[in-house]
Structures
1.
Amino acid sequence: MTAVANGAGEWRSWRAAAREALYGPRGFYRRPEGPAGHFRTSVHVSALFARAVARLLCRVDAALGRPARLDFVDMAAGRGELVTGVLAALPADVAARTRAYAVEIAARPEGLDHRIEWLPEPPRPVTGLLFANEWLDNVPVEVAQTDAAGVARRVLVRDDGTERLGEPVTGAEAEWLRRWWPQAAGTGWPEEGRRPDEEHRSEQGRRVRQGLRAEHGLRAEHGLRAEEGLRAEEGLRAEEGLRAEEGLRAEEGLRAEIGLPRDAAWASAVATLESGLAVAVDYAHTRENRPPFGTLTGFREGRETAPVPDGSCDITAHVALDACAAACPLPGARLLSQREALPVLGVTGARPPLALASTDPAGYVRALAGAGEAAELTAPGGLGDFVWLLQPVGIPDVLAP
Ligand SMILES: C[S@@+](CC[C@H](N)C(=O)[O-])C[C@H]1O[C@@H](n2cnc3c(N)ncnc32)[C@H](O)[C@@H]1O
């Protein structure tokens, strides 16, 4: 990707910009407050989540025949909250055999349980459970947007979040779009047999400059992906004749996040497993329900915000977990919602019986609070819609009901 110097800053691809904004020396994830200072994951919502993961580790342990050394890898561990909770929730005989690892780019927090090994990469080989909660959505990806002629182009961004379109998406990235996000794949006109003539080309250049700078303020408020006014005014949806002639298919302004780096990241994490289970939990979509305008967004101090790659906010996009699964040629992978997964691991939102209130008032209040937290972890439209990708290696499906 060629960056183009510009008076107001450099145009970079979203992947390069987000990588520096999140993980560079002054990156968002290097900040002392950690992710919990800006948003809540399931881990922060309730200790019930870590207890459920501890139960999952026990099931993996049983499936492995209770090995002398059982690994638990908290992949993308934040400040180690999940691994700390899992160790606390394990039965003593399992805890005694467990090697606990936190894999994280950020530095080890002070005061962390000495039993937890803090690593920049997963250990290998792993025998046990590798659990990645909200990791893959923070693996930076390229963003593509279709131009007026329906061609998928790389979106370039500056540090202040302004965008313009760059070159057409080609090669492995175009292939990924065609396979996994076909609505936004466009045609990639530099391909053999599809090159528009010079007149069409300069026409496309004009369209890109005039019409396709997305307006982040608008997006944050209204969920808009590009300025509708401009598009409509210019009539920049390719005329039918042009489309038919060139075989162009996609609408203008469709966006997609190209998941290749996430597929690779997931495949390399799973490759560390000798036997056991790898689990990725994230907000996700599959080929059948990709969002037409992508999902790139930001978070800062508890609020969703425009994704500005200056290190001040999180930059995240939902994960094509079906593509991640396919990147690991192993049998037995499956996707299920957190709403389905957690009850199997003992987390239910059932209210305690009212009779408990008179026999054990404190216990009743505790149980009520637990039910509330369980409901939040499994709520439709919220954390319950998160998707779990289960990737067993050499063991059966331990989450089968
Ligand atoms: C949204 S936070 C999730 C933290 C924690 N898993 C939780 O659920 O609360 C994402 C974390 O992934 C970490 N991360 C991203 N890429 C990573 C990588 N390649 N290796 C290790 N950690 C990574 C970030 O530093 C950040 O702490």
2.
Amino acid sequence: MLKLVLLVILALLAEQRSQALEENTEEHLFPPIHPNCTQSLTELLLLRQEAQLNRMSAAEEATTQVLKETLQTLVQVRDSLNALRNTAQGHTPTSEAVVECVSPFTRVGERCLLLALNKMHTWASARHFCAAYGADLAHFSDINEYVAVLGYINTINELKKSVSIWIGGSDEVEEDNWVWVTGELMPRGSPFWGTKDGYRPQPSDGRSQNCAVLWQPDQYYIHDVSCTYKSAPLCQM
Ligand SMILES: [Ca+2]
């Protein structure tokens, strides 16, 4: 029993000595402040602050490096998963969906078009002609699609026949509210619509002309004409 008591006392003394050594080490780095010390209080505070900032800076650098390595690993995992998915779907990342058109339609950009140059129809009859193919009169909303349509017309109309071409736009429901057969608003002004006699911007003829045509005498700019006029249908699947 006596031995046990002596061992406990010795252990307590050893722990007190260890704490004293740690305090001495801390005091060596940051000596305690004494009223009579020649080193100013400001310098001591600055030294402590500098040491703390150095420790924080080192920790921040280590954290940043870990985050960079984690990000790099995640990017590699993402790329690997994308490659596996593309392989499973049987295509490469650069492959694109291709529009397939059934004859007699021709692929023009992302659409299928049919220009029936030898079939003269009124506007309503032209819609019926297209409907027989499950299509409707053509429509376009931006300059790229318009240019593609003009290119297709020039390719088909090799003989430069003087034929104007119906497209799917009208203001029959409400005067001067030009809409496509889809219900979308038609683009207005240049470069889609032409001019009559070189100076009257189209559309220009009010209630008497409610259907849109690619007008051959004006280089296939859009004009308003009577819906009973006879033109060639341009169908869009
Ligand atoms: Ca009109």
